[in-house]
Amino acid sequence: MTDGSLVTVRLPQSLAEHAGGQRELAVDAPPGATLADVLDLLASMAPGVDRRVRDETGAVRRFVNVYVDEDECRTLDGLRTPVPPGTVLFVIPSVAGGAA
Amino acid sequence: MRIAIGTRKGLWTAKGGADGWEVSQPLKAMAEFSSVAWMPRGAGDPPRLLAGARSWFWGPSVLFSDDDGVTWSDPEHRAIAFPPDAGVAIERIWNLTPDPRQADVVWAGCEPHSLWRSSDGGSEFTLNAGLWEHPHRPEWMPGAGGAAIHTIAPRPDGSMVVAMSTGGVYRSADSDSGWVPANRGIRVDFQPEEYPEFNQCVHRIAVDGGDPSRVYAQNHGGVYRSDDSGDAWQPIMEGLPKDFGFVVLAHPSQGGTAWVIPIDAETMFPPEGRLRLWRTDDAGATWAETGDGLPDGHYASVMRDSAHVIEHDGDAAIAFGTRNGCVFASLDGGRTFTEVVSGLPDVLSVRISP
What we know:
Structural class of chain A: alpha+beta
CATH superfamily of chain B: YVTN repeat-like/Quinoprotein amine dehydrogenase
Largest sheet of chain A: 5 strands, mixed
Largest sheet of chain B: 4 strands, antiparallel
Oligomer: heterodimer
Number of helices of chain A: 3
Largest interface: A-B, 21 and 20 residues
Strand content of chain A: 15-25%
Strand order of the largest sheet of chain B: 3-2-1-27
Radius of gyration of chain B: 19 Å
Helix content of chain B: under 10%
């Protein structure tokens, strides 16, 4: 059940082991928070997730997509995208099979 | 004897020797392993296997295992990360070199061009500020494989020589600061100035096993030797079938002995499809083909971190891997080779442990 006062972050299975085995984390983000703010809060909760989703400059890695509800953040305002309470973030690795 | 094999897509080890080799199942998958290293531990303990990994999705990391790859460290923190004010991120860990002078010290050469030091066996690395802030750095360029410090040579006198593509050879008297270019005599053929102070595309260097002030370099076009720690270089490619390649190995204890694996620069194939080493026992004055058991009709190259030599039974053991997923090993100084494994992905890194 999603708490409407929190931001929900849904992780792929491959990141769950770095979040205490959970596929879903609830982040208590303040009103007015941006995606960067939420990811900073996520980093304090699950640093192993953060270092895989973002590089040390804070940029979302090239083959990682972060959806803010229905839209990938790069199609919105990137890390400056507003993330109000109740939002669901989906972390989804790209389809990058061509590299294999 | 152990061989670590890092590939474009996964990590393996092989154990064995004269009686054959047993190759592991994939120890890791879905990541490229540009660098591997064995770090000796206490007597009776298996060596630490270090691996420079890059997941296409989740980025680079340094992993290590103290039980031959059964279990792995996978730190939640960033083992290697630029400070916030650098404004760049680590792309690849091209080389991992345990320091033979100090227990638990491991050096890493990374992309973008940067040198890192760990004093805790590979858990955390610190950026070498002297080289990162070098005034030449804005002019160092990525080679075709990417910007890389790919060779790290700690020397007994406390000094260090590193090599990068492109950038060339640099030397520090204390392995920390005062980095100076050491490229005089190494020719470049990709810019108007043939003998620049720096920016040579050095593919690999190796320190002579008998004289640490003698260094060999396989350059992008040309094989060279310096007898004064890189102050001046002389060409030593006379007698080789090609002057291009990515590998140079020096015998760990036998001064004057070194090997290269020539590659045709036009085709990137071994010359005439003959995958062979060429050996010198007189510091490059003469060369002879070696490597019975290596294949003919072989058209895959050998990358710069994909070959290694260690002391073995009064001679040298050599192992190397190819871009078509083969690994070959020799226990007699490169005279004869056996195939350790074939059918792996593109081999990027190979290291042997006794």
